[in-house]
Amino acid sequence: MKVIKAIYNFIVGDMVILIGVMLAVTILALINNVPALAPLRGLSGPFMVIAVLASLVATLSREAFSPTR
Amino acid sequence: MQWVVATASFLASAVEFVEAFTIVLVVGVTVNWRSALLGALAAAATLALLVATLGTALVQWVPIDALRMVIGTLLLLFGLKWLKNAIMRYAGLKARHDEQAIYEETRAELRARGEVEASSSRFDLFGFLLSYKSVLLEGLEVAFIVITFGLSAASSTVSRSSGLASAAFGALAAGLLVILVGAIVRVPLAKVPENTLKFVVGIMLTTFGTFWLGEGFGVEWPLSDAFLLILIAIYLGASFLLTVWLKRVKKQQQAQAIEKQAVPATEYSKEVSR
């Protein structure tokens, strides 16, 4: 458990960023691999940029309004 | 030579080496220079070995598309972390790195342990390990950035090796520069604009992470590689807006805190006057 926590802290150390990026990757994988979602492939680029910005805004909001800060 | 890769690696390494240098300096001044430098050299050798083995293995055996996705994700995670911390420091929500304070604190710890001034040149295991640990821990993130960034901007095995070499060159140049300046001034490098460097590196890592992760998923960016500049502009603009917003939030929170403190005081004075 300690090793996993150390790796997590080393790579990201922020749950909001981790969830945001992983969610974006999962959705992109679905868009690319599910034939029914093929029409959305053209929107993958803008979606990625928006997902990155949303993760950044979410993590900063959490820090700004955290009662423990 | 891939200059963008070398520059990003140089900046990232410079920040981390400045932080590591502070501890090496304390060990050098308080324990002795022999142990401090041996510890730093051993850590640098460990990091070089890590980059060489892990980097070469990735270049040789992992297919480019899979590599782009993994590297893009890692660059994004690292980049967003660096960017978030830099924005928070700009907005005043997080304390800036104070090399002088870290220097004084570590020196006090060593003095409490009985180390006073570097009087003997005998090898000291504690000094060696402290120096080794600080350089290794600060350098580990740089090693990963060197590997991921070096491998990211390439489409063939040959250019991947060249990217890795460019990134390693950037890190080496930063290390040598910090050691040279540190050896001349012999004080913590407190004047280095660490937060600005971290912000620039955060923007670069996030930009390249987005770009390569997109490429891994078959995204065809408009204007091809030139879209990197557009991504940089988007992230710079967003960071600026976020910093302004967070500064405003902080001011509001401070004003509310002052109001809360003032209300009980007014009520107390009313009670007294009754």
How many H/I helices of chain A? Answer: 3
Uncertain residue segments of chain A = none
Q: Taking all residues together, what is the mean pLDDT of chain A? A: 88
Distance between the termini of chain B: 80 Å
What's the count of strands of chain B? 0
Global outline of chain B? flat
* Global outline of chain A: flat
Helix content of chain A: over 70%
Rg of chain A (CA only): 15 Å
The span between the termini of chain A is 26 Å
What percentage of amino acids of chain B are in beta strands? under 5%
Please state the oligomeric state of the protein chains shown. Answer: heterodimer
For the secondary structure, the number of strands of chain A is 0
Largest contact between protein chains?
A: A-B, 30 and 35 residues
**Class by SSE composition of chain A:** mainly alpha
Question: Would you write up a description of this structure?
Answer:
The complex is a heterodimer of chains A (69) and B (274). In chain A, 72% of the residues lie in helices and 0% in strands. Chain A has helices at residues 2-11, 15-33, 44-64. The model of chain A has no long low-confidence stretch (mean pLDDT 88). With 69 residues, chain A is mainly alpha-helical. Chain A is flat, with a radius of gyration of 15 Å. Helices cover 82% and strands 0% of the residues of chain B. Chain B is built from eight helices and no strands. The interface between A and B is medium-sized, with 30 and 35 residues.
